Amino acid sequence: MADCVPYLRSESYAKDVTKRLALYLERSGGHPLRLDIRLWSVHTKASTMMALEMLSACSHRWQTVKFDLFRDWPLDSILPCKGKLPTLEWLEIRYRVDCKHVRDIFEVAPRLTHAYIEPWARSFGWILPWTQLTELILILEGDSVIDNDEIPSLLSKLHNIRELCFCNYYETHGFSQFAPTPLNHLRVLEVYQPAMLSWFEAPSLCELYFTDYHRSYDNPYDVPGQISSLIQRSGCRIRKLSFAACRNSYAGTLKDVEELVLDYQHSICPSIDISSLPKLRLLTILCSIEEDFESLANSLTTALESTRVPTRSECPASLLERVTVELHYDQETQEQPKIPERLLKVADEWPVVVFRTQCP
């Protein structure tokens, strides 16, 4: 793996990094390359451009590439890569600069199947061989992408997509309506708003993830209505359902769900009534430990008590096999927490409960 990071410490240091990169490329022979290329404010322009030229000369060996582009420099040094990426399989790009003059570099990459783009918008973003992708993660910004035809235009190209993720770190206020796009091979879908499910017709869909990064408890989403509509028009069977959100959510009656994940992130919300999931086998509850663990433990206890789990007396044939509660903590600033006794007693009547503490 090569990491192209010539730091702005001194000219001699930058030259030393460049020499070591040249030596690495020479010794690696014809083996595939896994690259992590980061351009930040601490990097010298001359040495960085030289390093990019050296890596571009080996573009025929690129297998996985991660770009972090946060310098407003022309990227002419990677232009020679265009049309010379026969082995590239995975591409990850994070950028905050104008890349219009190089946006089509990855348009021809016959083996590219996985891509991550942050941020994405067709008007100024990257051009990829969309039709051959099987996994795609797109980080959107605000409503600008949603309010025009960019999404349906993109979806119409994803003929072979199997895993598709839309994330948005900004608050959004509505979505354009258009006819659902058939994605016959799509198995895993992640969205940040249930209304986005109206975009899809996915007969093979079996895993559905909701991720909302905004701390809002008001106006619960219409999750049951949107999921029901998706299932009705697609004929799919959702076996795994995951919520990573701070909003109140209710999944509705879903007869095929076998695994449910409730990711409370940095706060505890009233939990979902899982008694409407008759085939549920695995329930996982995730939350992060911040400074006040005592308050978190109290909130988590309340959430677990309000989680509607059929007991053995109510449903002797219940399929629920395991309830897992994961408490995430920061190893650098926190000691490993001890699970309070009152929290352990909450699940006395549940089938099997596992408490875990771990570092993210």
UniProtKB/TrEMBL annotation:
Top-level taxon: Eukaryota
Name of the featured protein: Uncharacterized protein
Source organism of this protein record: Amanita muscaria (strain Koide BX008)
